[in-house]
């Protein structure tokens, strides 16, 4: 188990501390604090000995973390990494800290402090004598152990002190808490697919519409598309539909009755149904996350495929939607900020246990010669890209006409990519097209 854990929002500081501590350090990105200290706690190794909190965490965040950490690990050594500021005394007074470390401190000072605190914890029976040992790496026998109590001597000859009697076998890395959806039982075979992006304008709506239209060819009238973008929902506009009802009525208590729920749906001539977005963001506010969850489950009992367009980011509604789907399509354009946002989002969802078992990564609006390639995107995301949808003027033309692109311009390259996405979700879709081609040949 790594004895040190760092929670910080500074990638630069993280790199520095990682270079100092190597395998002995576990890192939890400070971005997880958006979901409260518990989201961080689930990423902290089993028995940390010293926690470094900061830089770039505010007082409330630090306090929440200190409380959660000390409740679970009363013997933990706590260091806040923060500039000397006038309010620092309040921090020290209010938080049970062992030390405050400047992020600008040299490597020697930083290591000296960590060693001092480690020794103190061992002397006070808060940690075992070998808890801070490095995991046994092959080169450890050649590595002089530097006596950091006296940094000036660090370049001189130093005695090699490796106690090989101790069990210093590296423990396996704590597994990332994975979480898979339970298999659907036979009575409930509906597949629900959420289209998710950390930012707006990435192509969620474009994807959701075309996935619904594509699935409707496999399962006519057994597909429903929910516009759960409560702020900027625009599916009815993009499909040129006059809504019968909206998500506000579909999530009302009256709609618990299936017959009433069905009256709130708007039919599209491409053989699928739409739950229209609220008529205004204010009305959208009245839709609670719980009622959205209920709507998804209800529709899964009626339709074979439920496709959900979501609000950008990981608000409560998106999280609830992800809890109630079997598949998720994550979409980003080829820009570094969007890709990094998506990477963080994927990490958070994995931690929260909300990453659906079937997930697809789509990079949308790709263009040749814009600097980044899909390979670069995969490196930034840390995961393979499943589908690449090229930028195409046909997308805008189709939405101006109110027709799904895959119907408006089937030969367009973006249209082909979207059909490939549908075929990944429902392999029958590819079969159906092949059959049609054979018949018409
Ligand atoms: N592959 C693409 N090529 C060209 N324009 C696209 C493409 N995908 C989306 N767009 C356009 O980008 C804008 C944002 O797409 P949209 O699907 O509405 O994103 P979101 O729902 O994530 O906000 C729209 O104007 C849409 O027509
Ligand atoms: Mg949208």
Automatic annotation (TrEMBL):
List, alphabetically, the Gene3D superfamilies matched: P-loop containing nucleotide triphosphate hydrolases
Q: Which residues form the AAA domain?
A: 191-351
* InterPro entries given in the database record: AAA_dom, P-loop_NTPase, ParA/MinD_ATPase
Q: Which domain of life is it from?
A: Bacteria
**Which SUPFAM superfamilies does the UniProt entry name for this protein?**
P-loop containing nucleoside triphosphate hydrolases
Name of this chain's protein? AAA domain-containing protein
Annotated organism of origin = Agromyces neolithicus
